[in-house]
Amino acid sequence: MLQIKNLRKTYKIGKHQVIALDNVSFDLPNGKLVAIVGPSGCGKTTMMNLIGALDGDFEGDVVVNGKSLKEAGGKDLDTYRKNTVGFIFQQFNLLNSQTSLQNVELALDLSGISKQEKTKKAKSLLEGVGLSDQMKKKVNKLSGGQRQRVAIARALANDPEIILADEPTGALDVKTGEQVMELLKEISKEKLVLMVTHAPELAETYADLIVKMEDGKLISIEENISTVSTAVSKIDKIETKSKMSFLAALKMSMRNAWLKKGRTIATALGTSIGICGISLAIAITSGTTHTVTNQINGIFPANAITVSLKENAGKPLRDVKPLKYSDISETMSLNKNLYDYIFAIGGKGIPVDTFYSLDQSIIKDEKLVTKMSEQATREKLIMMMAPGILEDVKNDLQYGTLPKKDSTNEVVISLSTAKNLEKNGGELKDLIGKDIYVRYFKQGANPDNDQSGIPEVPIVKTWKIAGIANTTTLIPTYYISGDWLINFYQKEFKIDKTTLEGNALVVYSKNTKDLEEELQKLNDSQSKYKLELAAKTISSQVEGAMNQIRYALMGFAGVSIVVAALMISIVVYISVLERINEIGILRAVGARKRDILNIFVAESFIIGVLSAGIGLIFTLGISKLINSAVYSFLQNISSNAPYMEVAKLPLSDAGMILLFCVVLSMISGFYPALKASRMDPIDALRRR
Ligand code: ADP
Ligand code: MG
What we know:
The protein is α+β, with helices and mostly antiparallel strands. The chain is built from 21 helices and 21 strands.
């Protein structure tokens, strides 16, 4: 039972008021075909839209089976549109680029039933309107009559009680119009079919009741005795739930994203630049931190302790007091576990070392044939002699042994030095036991630029190669000296070791367990030294510096993220404008505001996932490029430089970035999505 009570509707156009419906009241029983007739502009469409709850702005009331539309809330109206009324429009309002089946399924999408069930029902509905052989055809390939049948099948999808058809034959020729009327007549055996028509002869042939209107007023309601009767065909009743799932919304948006793939990908690419920037900032800083920390840990084993003067704490570098040679023994006496040290000597007058190749003839000519311009090679040679480090080198030994404890003429050389010495082929292991000749000369003299032969007063010392170690530590040797080397300097170069000054002292402890606690105690005592785990101090300094770099880089990338967010917002907004008709159709078949919101949020979700995906893949590629570039650069310096992952995005950070990107783009898309969902169904349908 449909009751229209004092229904009044006015439109405002500028200052003018148009009265479209003027106090209309009438009742209609179920199971009839009712035709509404009257001249153009008399308010027929307006009334249909009010009965269908497409327009909520009116006076009076529409009461369906005792329920008032005036009193109903937004959610009730959505349910009403979905379950109680079915719309058929003059201009069909179908999605032209989709198939008949998809159009009918659309109405069922909102019901949250399974895919198979949905397809089965849509098929049986299309069979019911005589379109079994047109299901897979796109709507824009169908004739007008066929389109209207699809629209009828869609209107029936959720088994409504009332079918509202606004001039359903208006766009059809006479013959197909009659076929559509037959169908509506059939449907009216079970439902109330309310139809607006321009053609009085159609009303007279098919309608049970004829409602006449003029100028927004009801003129008459008459029974039509001459109506034809048709056979009743049964259409299956469908049980539906009331929700469209987010998944259904996602699928719908996916279809749209695919339709507009150029734009979707362009947007995702744009956004991915910012994402890539942030990821790279994290990848590079975290990879570098990791690599550098590893290197530091390689140089400074767990038992290495840096020593500094407490009085230097917080002072700028130029005011820092250097450590003296006497500080070494004073520090060593602090704790019985301290057994060895490295002293970094930065003062003048310390000899710099370099070496000749093994070739005897070269030594005889006293000419520098193999120019050891490779800093790394030169540096690594004597590095090995520092006793504290020897322990660490033990694990890296490839050939030979460590120097004997009291030996004064044995060395371990690095693998890259060994390869340099055996440049002309020959087994590396044959180098063990051979002599190499190392020249020492005053700091400041440059052997590499010397063309004539011997630079000023070189002292040549012969060393025997005890072992070859695969190590990559890169620290100038003349700069760092152990006790052993200092004694060597004193003897060979007549240096007074008590005058040596250094800017770093690293001591080694026998104890590695509870070392930190032990150091804490020492630091709390009255001594003038501050002792810290070397690896930890330096690593944390590196980490601190890297974090600063990271945030600076992320700040830059952040700007492009803001731009990207705006872009997503605009793209979703454009999409809303493009799909405004679809929004209207969806609302007309009962989509909730929430469903429309979901559809567009789902669209931004897709853009977000794509952006993050593209950004992360780029990051992976660029990281690989950076790593190989660094590798080949290091290979030029030293042939045994390892492959280091200086750019590496940790998996957990990648996950965070993905999440961030998806959330960001969903937030960006939210506003336009909200606008779309708030649109009145009738406004959306009217705009084309
Ligand atoms: P019918 O469907 O009988 O041809 P309508 O219900 O479409 O008539 O229109 C009734 C009156 O309301 C007409 O005068 C029309 O100009 C006016 N009208 C309809 N829709 C609007 C609108 N959206 N804005 C302003 N006036 C409108
Ligand atoms: Mg009309």
